[in-house]
Amino acid sequence: MVACFFPCHAQQPTPQSEEVKNGTITGRVFNVHGGRISVAEGWNPGPEASVDRRWDPAELGEIIPKLVADAEPNVAMARRAARS
Length: 84
What we know:
alpha+beta, three-stranded antiparallel beta sheet, 2 helices, 3 strands, 21% helix
């Protein structure tokens, strides 16, 4: 549906949790679709939270740290390729 890509749906999230403010949460990718938000675990969606409306950015300050805490840790970028 074209309406979901309408600019009024795009908001700059400004979560105000201590984890976000002090930089403890870095290097994470979040999947956001409508009222759903999840932490990416590689190519798969990880822990998810959802509401039946748009997220209020102030709510994300509480939700994001919980999702990250429940998610698998990031894979190290310096991972060596498997030998065959």
